[in-house]
Structures are given as C-alpha cells and as structure tokens.
Specification:
Strand content: 25-35%
Largest sheet: 3 strands, antiparallel
Mean pLDDT: 92
Distance between the termini: 7 Å
Low-confidence stretches: none
Helix content: 40-55%
Oligomer: single chain
Number of strands: 5
Length: about 100
C-alpha cells in the first residue's frame, strides 16, 4: 500500500469531523497554532518547543562541512547553518512501534 501525504485540507477536515469545529474555526485554530509555532521556534530565547504526547522541535546548529557538487564532482565547502529537528515523544514512538509493517 502506497503512503499518501496529508496536508492542511485533510487536517482541517479531521478537526471538523472529530473536534466539532466549523470550517472557519478549524482554519483559525490551525493558522494560530502554526503561526505560534513559527514565532516560538524562531525566538532567540527559546531552545525547544515541546508538545505533550507529540514531541519536541528544537534548533540544531550544523557545522561547516565538505560536500560535492553533484554535476561536477568537485569538492565544495558547505557553510554552517541552523536547522529544525523534531524528536518524537514516547507516546508517538510507541504508536509507531505498534503499527504493522508493510
């Protein structure tokens, strides 16, 4: 069975069906949540955003490294950067463990 992606539209439908939200309420709640996450994770004083039962988002500093240009094979220096990482909670990890393998 091929896995499919779930986007905002499907999440809003799920919120409407299982949360009793109207379309407008679901969209406002979703947008407020996303905007809050973006604001918090980008704030300099916040090191981690933890969502109970889901997991934690944190910023990781990735150091400079040597990579290769895929077209030429030439070595290039990839500059340091920041990236966002996610670590699943124990509850989410347990759900994954309980899923049947395909």
């Amino acid at each position: 069975m091929e896995k499919r992606s779930v986007g905002k539209k499907e999440i809003l439908q799920h919120m409407m069906l299982h949360g009793g939200y109207t379309r407008d309420e679901a969209e406002r709640a979703f947008n407020a949540f996303v905007n809050s996450m973006l604001s918090l994770i980008s704030h300099e004083s916040v090191g981690r955003v933890y969502l109970s039962g889901l997991g934690a988002f944190h910023i990781k500093e990735v150091g400079e490294r040597v990579g290769r240009n895929p077209k030429t094979g030439e070595k290039v220096v990839v500059p340091p950067r920041r990236t966002i990482r996610f670590r699943a909670s124990g509850k989410m990890s347990s759900l994954l463990e309980a899923m049947p393998e395909h």
